[in-house]
Specification:
Strand 7 and strand 8 form a beta hairpin. The chain is of the alpha+beta class and 225 residues long. Helices cover 35% and strands 21% of the residues. The protein starts with 6 loop residues before the first helix and ends with a strand. The strands form three sheets. A four-stranded mixed β-sheet has the order 5-6-7-8, covered by helices on one side. The longest helix is centred in the last third of the chain and has 16 residues. It folds into two domains: 134 residues, CBS-domain; 79 residues, Histidine-containing Protein, Chain: A. It is built from nine helices and eight strands.
Length: 225
């Protein structure tokens, strides 16, 4: 089975955090100095209790509970607009991710929650890292050399056990081109599927034939992320 990267593999472990008692001006300074759009708020035990984002700061600075100017009567949003500490300013409970999530799972959660990053917590609720959109993009923006090595070592070698030179391989701009022979025609779609499963592969162009002389179907499949 191919190894698929998880949130734990790509998350940032050294996280800028706030305490509930962190003063508002210090919150502004930490966000600005570290060039971040949000920071987790943790208690004395390291457990996540909320997140302060730039949106929360803007609510405070505009003096409005929401940025559309629809003030409403809910005391919670008004409290954010008057907040003097991270604890009063933060959004809680926070949307979170787990270290064992797959990259697509984390991407879907970011999109569903309309956020740019998610704190990563363990079963005990302790903060273990943070995952951002850019972290996820880095998984797919891989060099052709990295992709080639993974196809050669994992797909052609470790999984299929093909002899060296049986299949020639070229990777250009994330497109994997395969030429050569496989033991059986049924292995052609297997090879294509395994290559598609590698992070960073954009498409697979397979020109493979069965070693016994039976020609496998030439396949081209575009990988959609």
């Amino acid at each position: 089975m191919q190894y698929r990267r998880t949130v734990g593999d790509v998350m940032t472990e050294e996280v800028v955090t706030l305490r509930p008692s962190t003063p508002f001006q210090e919150v502004l300074g930490l966000l600005a100095v570290n060039d971040i759009v949000a920071a987790p708020v943790v208690d004395d035990d390291g457990s996540l209790v909320g997140v302060v984002s730039v949106s929360d700061v803007l609510r405070h600075e505009t003096g409005m509970p929401d940025l559309q100017g629809q003030n409403g009567n809910d005391e919670g949003p008004w409290g954010k607009a008057r907040a003097q500490t991270a604890g009063a300013l933060m959004s809680s409970p926070a949307f979170t991710a787990r270290a064992d999530w797959t990259i697509p799972q984390a991407a879907r959660e970011l999109r569903r929650r309309h956020v740019k990053q998610l704190p990563v917590v363990g079963d005990d609720g302790h903060l273990s890292g943070i995952i951002s959109r850019s972290d996820l993009l880095d998984v797919f923006i891989r060099s052709d050399g990295d992709i080639r090595r993974e196809v050669e070592q994992d797909v052609l070698g470790r999984i299929l056990g093909l002899d060296d030179g049986t299949v020639t391989l070229e990777v250009r701009d994330g497109v994997v081109t395969l030429r050569g022979h496989v033991p059986e025609p049924r292995l052609v779609p297997v090879v294509v599927g395994l290559c598609h499963g590698i992070d960073g592969v954009v498409a697979v162009d397979a020109h493979l034939a069965a070693a016994a002389g039976q020609v496998g179907t030439g396949l081209r499949a575009n990988q959609k992320r």
